[in-house]
Structure formats: structure tokens, C-alpha cells
Amino acid sequence: MPNRLPEPGADERAHSDRLLQLLREQIVSHGPMPFSQYMERCLYAPGLGYYSAGRTKFGAAGDFVTAPELGDLFAGCVVNAVQPVLAMLGDEADFLELGGGSGAFAEAALKALAAGGALPRQYLILEPSADLRERQRERLAANLPPGLHARVQWLDRPPEQDWRGVLFANEVIDALPATRFAMRQGEVYEEYVALDGEGRLTRVDRPADALVAGAVRHVERDLGVEFVDGYRSELLPQLPYWIQAVAGALTAGLLLFVDYGYVRREYYLPERDDGTLMAHYRHHAHNDPLYLPGLNDLTTSVDFTALAEAGNSAGFGVAGYLPQAQFLIGAGLQQVFEDAQAKVADEHGRYRLAQQAKRLMLPEQMGERFQAMLLARGLDALPLPAELLAADQGGRL
């Protein structure tokens, strides 16, 4: 067990044991499973996975805090950035949020869009978790005026008919099931999850198939170096297919991804020789993905160079790439902050607002660890804030 982690309650441990039993049965029946499949089961197995079970995930009572959970500043800046695109696309423009979390972003974004006079035709939420979807429904029904709430629709799958608008995803790609690879004597191996002699989960390496080996060799060619023996990391060979699946029907508009990660040459630094895989449990980060399956959020950092390549392959061009702090400044954080401060009557509220801004902006918090990438297609012009375009660091990709 990782050191200094909170002890799970009896119900939590029983829940994890049920998922563990399912994993064991699948491994016994089909042999060791690729780590990506193990991660998918741990996060999304119906009724048992981290995101599909009923435990609180977000905020102080959960396992981690996302930018929308801190308050409304983040959503206000996102709306500032994308509202000109919605306005240019007109009355038929929709807004699609991938993975709605607690519903905090949707609530704040819809109120900001209404205040700015550029409401989308529909506010769509693609949420695979039935539990989270129900929480979102309850929150938005309780906190939005009926006219705004009526614009919200939940989707079971990405739009299949052509549409125009904005797709937004905050901390979504880090939760895509990642492939783990390792190098042995110049050959590419893939990490699997197996059972040891006592029925416990363990990680083993097997020779990689052509898809995984080809993806690793592509990274090596792009970097101009070969990974040394023993080097271990992750990649998402499915990312181009995923982008095409979620955004392929968007004929005109913008994709905005915010997540933690690096450009490729920083992601695969020689000293980062065990990758970026992390588990999050009750605001504690640790590196044992086999511990209490189903109770931990498993994540990997995003290779933003790979995201740009995937966007290009789906017909999108990179419209901007920059650290979160620069994105928020370029999207008018100062004005959003001043407007919010003017509505706060007490000193404690002002202090909380200042703390929210610090969490979003400080380099050691979210300001530099998180990056924003904008991908565009089918737009005659790119009506993004000039300050945001001026801060673009796309040349680093």
C-alpha cells in the first residue's frame, strides 16, 4: 500500500473488492490485459469504475479539485475566449462540453453566456457516467433559470449529424485509457496487468503489437532520439480516432482542450523514465495504479504535440497553444476578476476570490502545469481575443 494514504472505509473496500474480482475473472479467462484496458475498467466499468460509481469525485469532499470547482473565474474566461466564435456562427451554433463533472462549469458558463448575449442554441453535455449525469441534472435544475436550463441536453454519444459551434473539454484527455510501453534491448514492449501466484494484481511486459510499436517509433523519429533500455512511459495511439469520433461532425467551429501536460520533447525527457502515470485518492497523489482499483482516479499527462497531430489528422488546425495562466490573461481574467469582486460584499468572499485566482494562475499550482489548446475548422476568420492570439506558443509544439 502507498505510504500515508487515508484508509478506506468498509464500504469503499468492499466496492474495490468487487471490481478486483471482476478484473481477476477477466484475466483468468482471457490472460493478462493491456494496461490501457485495466485503466479503462478501473475508471469506467459499469457501476464499479471510478467515474461510473456513486462516490464524490470533485471538490474538497472528493479526490481532486478541477478549475471549475474553484469558482466561476475559469468559466468566465473560457466564455470570453469562445463567445466571439459562437457569435460569428450565429443562431445555429451549439456548445458541447465533454465530461461535465459536477456541472459547475456548465452552470457558470451558461450564466456568463447569457450575460454576454451570445447564448448557444443548445448547451450539450456528453457524459458517459450515469451517476455524474444525474448530479449535473440536479445541480443545473436547481441553479439555472428555466430559460437557460431548457437549452441543456445530455448526449449518449458524440453528434453524428453535422453541427457548428464550440467543443470544450477540461481534464478529459488525461483520463483516456493510456498505453504503457517499455524498451528492452531496443525492442518495444507493452505493459500488461496479470495475476501473480497468489492471485494478486501485478504488472508485466509483453512484446508490443504493430500499432503500439509503430506509435513509439513515430515518437522516436519526431524527437530524433531512441529511447534507452529500461525507459518506460505512455502514449495514446487511439487519440486520432478519438478526436475524429468526438469532433468529426463539427463542420465549423472551435475545439478547446485544457489539461495538464507537456509538448512532446518535454514529455519524454530522459529523466522522466517512468512516464507520468498517477493515481489520485482523497487529495493524495501516488504512483501505484493497482492499489484499491475503482477508488482511485488514474491519469496520465497529455502530450500536446500528439493532440495537435490528432487534430490535424481530423482536419483541424492549431489556432492556439499556451499555458493556462497566459490563456486566462488573454481571455480577460482581470476584467472577470474585477466584475466578480464588485459583487462580493464581505472580506472573506474577497479573500476566497483572490485564492481562486492564485490557484488558477500560480506556476506551481495550475498556471504552468495546465495548458490550453485551441483547434479550429471551417472558419473564415479566427475571432479570438487579440491578447490570447498574441500569447500563442504554438511554435513550441
Automatic annotation (TrEMBL):
Gene3D superfamilies named in the record: 3.40.50.12710
Keyword Transmembrane: yes
Stored InterPro entries: NDUFAF7, NDUFAF7_sf, SAM-dependent_MTases_sf
Biological process annotations from GO: methylation
Entry keywords, A to Z: Membrane, Methyltransferase, Transferase, Transmembrane, Transmembrane helix
Molecular functions per Gene Ontology: protein-arginine omega-N symmetric methyltransferase activity
Membrane-spanning parts: 241-262
Pfam families, alphabetized: Methyltransf_28 (PF02636)
Protein name, per record: Class I SAM-dependent methyltransferase
